[in-house]
Amino acid sequence: MRSLQYLLLVLLIAIGLVASAPPRHRRQIDLTLSAEHDDKDDETELALEAIAGLWSSPDSRTKIDGSAKVVHRSHGGIQSGSDQDWRIGLRVVFD
């Protein structure tokens, strides 16, 4: 019985903390996956890009967007192998 009381107390404290937490902000993340194959050069390219709105001013006139992109290329034929290209970007927009 005592453990049940402690559990209820912890539950009430947790609910109070969650209720008093700052409001959550919605974020939209756009994901793009693309694949391309070139028969002539026997090359395949896979790309994954994520773009997200990171911050916006209260009047929405200033925005900060972030992006990350990884590209994987696979070469066949005479020069077989693969390489990767990683990019991280930040964009600030003033209206």
TrEMBL record:
* Keywords (A to Z) from UniProt: Signal
UniProt signal peptide: 1-20
Q: What's the protein called, per UniProt?
A: Attacin C-terminal domain-containing protein
| Source organism of the structure | Drosophila ananassae (Fruit fly)
